[in-house]
Write a structure and sequence with these properties.
By secondary structure, this protein is mostly helical. It is built from two helices and no strands.
Length: 116
């Protein structure tokens, strides 16, 4: 038994067509000259520059906010230190007033001052 083909196989490659390739080529009716290309490139560079500047100013504004918060933290730290000193001073006076040594003291009958 011999095998014979009943249909003829025609390859797509004979027509220079590859897989996933369109067989129709569209040509744009709009043609741009060298001046138009230069203008478009200049506009694109300008837009990219503006985008960069907005990002840079955003970072700068965050820097100013961070600096403002840092100065507030420094001010509050200074106030906290002052309040700690005041608290220590006031509690020390209360402790001295309420001590047994202070309660055992009496007021003097007379006071004299020495001149130099």
């Amino acid at each position: 038994m011999s095998y014979q083909r009943t249909q003829q196989f025609q390859s797509r490659r004979a027509n220079n067509w590859n897989r996933n390739q369109n067989t129709v080529a569209f040509v744009s009716a709009v043609k741009l000259g060298p001046i138009a290309h230069t203008v478009l490139i200049a506009l694109m560079i300008t837009v990219l520059g503006l985008i960069y500047l907005t990002q840079a100013t955003r970072a700068t504004s965050y820097d100013y906010e961070a600096q403002k918060i840092d100065s507030q933290i420094a001010d509050l730290t200074t106030k906290k230190g002052d309040l700690e000193v005041e608290n220590a001073r006031l509690t020390a006076l209360e402790a001295v007033k309420n001590s047994t040594v202070a309660k055992a003291m009496t007021t003097p009958a007379s006071t004299e001052y020495v001149r130099q």
